[in-house]
Amino acid sequence: MSRCAGSRPTASTSCNSTRSSGDGALEAVVAAQRAGKIRYVGFTGHKSPAIHLRMLDTARANGFTFDAVQMPLNVMDAHYDSFATHVVPVLVEQDIGVLGMKPMGDPFVLVSGAVTAVECLHYAMNLPTSVVITGCDSLPVLEQALQAARSFRPLSEATVAALLERTAHAGRDGKYELYKTTHHFDGTYQNPQWLG
């Protein structure tokens, strides 16, 4: 368990620890939630929608439903191993909060030159998300995010289609989603001792 920004208690667990053995991480998280030590339980990941779906299936098989799930949601995701296509509909169906992160791909989507930062934010905000999480590492970036939020209106189907058409070539092989296609962001790959 950890404390997130604003000291709101949260917890997450790994796929292997959701197996119900009576004394695993899932049981500890549920006990902490029942005791009022944490409010919401969720998980996050970058690598593959298949991992998210396995987490959801494993939890459900053990009689557990997550409150929220975080994943990268951006215009490039739509073209390669898509969280928006495979995971988001399951979350919406199960009434689980959708936390969209990496709307600009950390910032590799912008490096593609296919879209602007505001277009990235508007696209992610147009998905059925509970919240879109964007990194704000400077005052200009914060102001950009605020401007995107203030100017957002639901995108028309034609606008979404145009954005996806402009990003189709760049997004087809995951080149701008390094968290999916490389080990650059894999903490456990770079620290195998964490796996025991």
Q: What is the number of helices?
A: 10
The third-level CATH topology is TIM Barrel
In angstroms, what separates the terminal alpha carbons? 18 Å
Please compute the radius of gyration using only Cα atoms. Answer: 18 Å
The strand count comes to 6
CATH superfamily: NADP-dependent oxidoreductase domain
Shape verdict: globular
Report helical residue fraction. 40-55%
Percentage of β-strand residues: 5-15%
* Largest pleated sheet: 6 strands, mixed
The strand order across the widest sheet is 1-2-3-4-5-6
| H-E string | EEHEHEHHEHHEHHHH
Number of domains: 1
CATH-level-2 architecture: Alpha-Beta Barrel
Q: Which stretches are low in confidence, meaning pLDDT under 50 for 5 or more residues running?
A: 1-20
Question: Could you name the CATH class?
Answer: Alpha Beta
Classification by helices and strands:
alpha/beta
Mean pLDDT: 88
How would you characterize the overall build of this protein?
By secondary structure, the protein is α/β, with parallel strands linked by helices. The protein has a single domain, classed as TIM Barrel (Alpha-Beta Barrel), CATH 3.20.20. Helix content is 42%, strand content 12%. The protein contains 10 helices and 6 strands, in the order ββαβαβααβααβαααα. It has helices at residues 25-34, 49-61, 83-86, 88-93, 108-111, 117-126, 139-151, 157-171, 178-181, 187-190; strands at residues 2-3, 9-11, 40-44, 68-72, 97-101, 131-133. A 6-stranded mixed beta sheet has the order 1-2-3-4-5-6. The longest helix has 15 residues, at 157-171. The radius of gyration is 18 Å and the shape is globular. Residues 1-20 have low confidence and may be disordered.
